[in-house]
Amino acid sequence: PSKVGTLKCGKVREMESQEGVAAITNPMRDLETVDEDLVQQMIYDALVWSSLHGLVVGDKNVQRSGRTPGVGMVHAPFALLPLSFPESYYSQACELAPIFNELVDRVSLDGNFLQDSLTRTKKVDAFTSRLLDIHSKMLEINKKEDIRLGLHRSDYMLDEHTKLLLQIELNTISCSFPGLGTIVSELHRSLLIHYGEHLGLDSKKIPGNSSVSRFAEAMAKAWTEYNNPRAVVMVVAQSEERNMYDQHWLCSLNNTYNVTTIRKSLAEIDMQGELLPDGTLLVGGQAVSVVYFRAGYAPSDYPSESEWSARLLMEQSSAIKCPSISYHLAGTKKIQQELAKPNVLERFLDNKEDIAKVRKCFAGLWSLDDAEIVSKAIERPELYVMKPQREGGGPIFLIFTLPFFLLFTIIYIIHWWEHCFRTRFRYFISGNNIYGEDVRETLLRLKKEGSEEDAAYILMQRIFPSESLAYLMRDGVCHKDQAISELGIYGAYLRSKDKVIMNEQCGYLMRTKISSSNEGGVAAGFAVLDSIYLT
Ligand code: ADP
Ligand code: MG
Ligand code: MG
Q1: Which fold has domain 366-461?
Q2: Distance CA 263, CA 251 (A)
Q3: Which bound ligand lies closest to the C-alpha atom of 511?
Q4: Is residue 276 left, alpha or beta, with left meaning phi > 0 and alpha meaning psi from -120 to 50?
Q5: Is 391 a catalytic residue?
């Protein structure tokens, strides 16, 4: 990707009248026509603003940055300007949030549906199997979660071919960036207040984004429902976390509700946790009212049995789990695929209009025991994505985990034979998913081996969002490249027995990544935080 520093903007144009026209036809990111000095000034201002306003992540070049707050910070990767996004699609995505919240809740209550849908997956996927074991134990003891808190994020892409807003996935555990996402919207608003006139852009077209404060409010309400003023909110975090400031944004808001927050790793919870006879969870002697997971979604979060026993301990307790094991399972890709089958949504939702709205955003989703679709995918692999039951393989994630990724790759080189290595290495590079030629290779391999491993995956229609030019900021350098974007809508759901206390859409997150990043290569994982400019 070229850098803006070397961008030849060409003529410095008269901005007033001409930029006004450009704002209608090609409103954003047409910085080609803008004076280069002005672009450089915006970049400078944006970097200063980010540092002053906590739009930061740990800097991987500084060893302690993932452990000690205040050490080794760098601005979070961000787009210089917000992405143009049609208001109608934005409203559609927002409207879906409370419906998905309700859907997750209903699905979570159907233990048999979760177990049955994941039976085949369980045989081949050790991680999902462990989650299901915890879930089974809860079914056996007839564990009831009277107070249920969901902090979800449903992700969408706008498919250029069909002109439909299609769901990528629904995250029910550890939804990242409610904090930094809010701040990126503020950064963009601030830039447009300053430079909008020159750019022909209006800062008011960036929709309000209160994800972090609404999530904090939901947590505080859950804490209130739990009704133990001395109890704390516990964030389950990875022991090394470069995205800690996003999490701290949320926790610092908890303080405004007079709620104390503690941060623990799964290993610490195993060491310090105990369960009182009445179900109270104590960690380090403190009663816990809400357990908020920002770890525990990936196999690497459970390096030993201790972490699993911590997870079980929390699940057995009366603390409000965000998410509970059932909410977690309801957000797996396999369940997403099951819900897309005919007549399944009808089991969980009553309102016909809601069902129609949800169905409209479903992309094609299939399990691999559908021989016809497997043949089609072998024939035209570029039209499909193969997904394992994993979380957090998104490109942003890789930015923070590059060192682990390298280590992982080396381990792969040592342990796996060449053929297997090739497929796996490439899918790891693009997150957990498999694209393009690798879809064909993997499907053929699975077919040949005739093993049950196919149950570890689902097939999904590949969505093709339109590309646009973006200015992506990373490490203080601006890269200009073609990019695609993914819109996430946060939703909060809080229920106490029959009473729904909160069921709302809570802000958004736009993520923009260079469009070639699926195919791997050096730039793999180059994605930035972004916001929306409504058109
Ligand atoms: P994760 O839980 O790892 O984030 P996702 O389903 O979100 O899993 O996939 C990771 C990334 O892969 C997404 O952010 C998106 O960029 C891309 N992706 C996923 N599904 C599709 C699809 N159907 N079409 C195109 N890209 C997709
Ligand atoms: Mg996910
Ligand atoms: Mg995702």
Answers
A1: Dna Ligase; domain 1 (3.30.1490)
A2: 9
A3: 1
A4: beta
A5: yes
In angstroms, the CA 350 to CA 353 distance is: 9
Q: For residues 124-133, give the mean pLDDT.
A: 97
> Is the interface score ipTM higher than 0.90?
yes
pLDDT tens-digit profile of 271-323? Answer: 999 999 999 999 999 999 999 999 999 999 999 999 999 999 999 999 999 99
Q: How far apart are the first and last CA of the chain?
A: 27
Span 2-78 CATH architecture = 2-Layer Sandwich (3.30)
DSSP summary character for residue 14: P
79-360+463-534 CATH pick, 3.90.220.20, 3.10.450.320, 3.40.50.1760, 3.55.40.20: 3.40.50.1760
Cα angle 8-13-19, degrees, rounded to a multiple of 5: 110
Domain ranges of the chain: 2-78, 79-360+463-534, 366-461
As given in the structure block, the two tokens for residue 234 are: 């516990």
pLDDT in tens, 36-89: 899 999 999 999 999 999 999 999 999 999 999 999 999 999 999 999 999 999
The answer to whether 157 touches 513, Cβ cutoff 8 Å, is no
Interacting residues of 204 by C-beta distance below 8 A, sequence separation 6+: none
Establish whether residue 396 lines the binding site of ligand 1, counting it when its CB lies within 6 angstroms of any ligand atom. no
Confidence of residue 517 (pLDDT cuts 50, 70, 90): low
Report how far ligand 2's centroid is from the alpha carbon of 155 (Å): 9
Contacts 24+ apart (CB under 8 A), 352-358: 354/99, 354/102, 357/92, 357/95, 357/96, 357/99, 358/96, 358/99, 358/100, 358/103
Q: Distance, CA 530 to ligand 1 centroid (Å)?
A: 17
How do strand 320-322 and strand 434-435 relate by DSSP bridges?
unpaired
Mutation test residue for ligand 1: of 154, 366, 433, the one with most atoms within 8 Å of CB: 433
Q: What percent of the chain has pLDDT over 90?
A: 80
- Beta carbon of 462 within 6 Å of any ligand 1 atom: yes
Ligand 1 atom, smallest distance to 169 CA: 6
Tell me, yes or no, if the two domains 2-78 and 366-461 fold the same way: yes
Average pLDDT of the residues of the chain: 88
Written as six digits, the tokens of 263 are 């941060």
What is residue 17's predicted lDDT score, i.e. its pLDDT? 34
